[in-house]
Design goal:
The relative contact order is 0.11. The chain is built from 18 helices and 20 strands. A hairpin with a 2-residue loop joins strand 14 and strand 15. It has a six-stranded mixed β-sheet, with helices on both faces. The chain has a six-stranded mixed β-sheet with strand order 16-17-18-13-19-20, with helices on both faces. A four-stranded antiparallel β-sheet has the order 2-1-4-5, covered by helices on one side. By secondary structure, the protein is of the alpha/beta class. The chain folds into three domains: 234 residues, P-loop containing nucleotide triphosphate hydrolases (Rossmann fold); 176 residues, P-loop containing nucleotide triphosphate hydrolases (Rossmann fold, 3-Layer(aba) Sandwich), CATH 3.40.50.300; 76 residues, no CATH class. The structure holds adenosine-5'-triphosphate and magnesium ion. The site of magnesium ion (MG) has 5 residues, from helix 1.
Amino acid sequence: MEMQGIDKAFDSVAACVNCQFELRSGEVHALIGENGAGKSTLMKILAGVYKKDAGTISLRGQQVDIPNPHAAQVLGITMIHQELNLMPHLTVAQNIFIGREPRSPIPYLLDDAKINQQAKELLASLNLHFNPKMRVGGLTVARQQMVEITKALSYNSQVLIMDEPTAALTESESEELFHMINRLRDKGIGIVYISHRLEEIKRISDRVTVMRDGHYIATKLTADISIDEMISLMVGRTIYESKPEIPDHASPDIVLEVRNLNRGRELQDVNFSLKRGEILGLAGLMGAGRTEVARAIVGADPVDSIDLTVNGRKVHIRSPKDAVQHGIGYLSEDRKRYGLITGMDVANNVGMASLRKFLRAFGIIDDTRVSEAAQQQVKALAVKTPSVKQKVRNLSGGNQQKVVIAKWLTADTDILIFDEPTRGIDVGAKSEIYKLLNELARQGKSIIMISSELPEILRMSHRIIVMCEGRITGELSSNEATQERIMQYATQRGGMVTALEESA
Ligand SMILES: Nc1ncnc2c1ncn2[C@@H]1O[C@H](COP(=O)(O)OP(=O)(O)OP(=O)(O)O)[C@@H](O)[C@H]1O
Ligand SMILES: [Mg+2]
């Protein structure tokens, strides 16, 4: 497959300018670049989601036209978007065969037995052994992804595009995906792999193409390029990763105390406190209960019991709105579902959690001030958008994440819970966000940071608590913490070994 001279503009934004990309069969070709570089756009053109303004696409030397996703499918090109496109209420088999189910002899009835059998064979051919009759909504994200891949292969796809496939996967799930990718490569399928995780790219790709600001920059053999070189091609400058130094501004004042937090088997007797000016890392494997703790604190989910003290006062928080009133903001890991209203513009999303601040007389929102505040944040976080009037839906994935962060920075809450704040964010923006968190702590704000990336936890946290299976299994100060010690606690079932038990 070959793309040449591809242009694509959205109003005033040139998302792709004279771009090129080439894919061989049996190759894993990584596509990298900063947030908003144009990666998703270029691949959506190939998948028939967007119409190109100029350029050509050829398959096996033949020029082709791809006006819509169906045309792409017929040509054997499939894109697996980061937001998966499955129907949660249908079964695995129904999802795989959606729109082309074999009909049963009785008109208008689908032959479930037949599609279940076919789905089972397809899954087995990929070494996947789960029940085709299961509802997709009950599967993990990783398994849903496997279903999407199976579906793609059932169309005999020769080109498979994966847009940030590991962003929501655990480490072992990512491993499973890499095995799958290797098998597909062996079958001669060409794979486009978009990711911000450069170590991953180093490991599984054959070639790398770099984009910057909508332009094609270079294509290299992965074996010939180091991660540092990838970064400097992506950003067009060298980023000096400042040595992790953790300025500790934490005062002894406790701003938040969580006691006796229980919910069924998911959360068991969670107790901890947060100090003023502290960045508290919350580590653990996916599914350990970290997000559940955050959601319990802000009243997003019901719990069996929780005693919360904010600034020395007992409080009852029944909803995230209550939480904001008590000065607690929660930045969700799932920005599409909880963090943003994507049909609204950037300014209104940024202002959303702090409307009271922008009230004029008679309860009217001061739009000018909302816009100004938004503009300030857009500048501070380098959000790539033509203006604060742009709809959030039209921003690239990473830039949407920055808008969620901007929202909570504007809200002036004293306690901030950040759940996977840098997921999907490029290297340059990551270090900006780290600087910002440090600055917030310096100003006396208190932060709980949930992250699955251990280097990030180690680099940022003054103190780290680790969870496993709904319990806190360990606590480490920044100078005793290492990746190994965190992993040890993160895999330690059955709760914390107390000093007493240890001596006994
Ligand atoms: N539907 C759209 N309408 C308007 N602008 C858009 C649209 N889709 C993308 N853009 C803009 O085009 C540019 C490229 O976006 P794209 O989504 O391709 O970036 P990306 O490289 O995938 O970034 P990320 O790593 O953050 O996902 C961005 O400036 C984005 O705001
Ligand atoms: Mg993208």
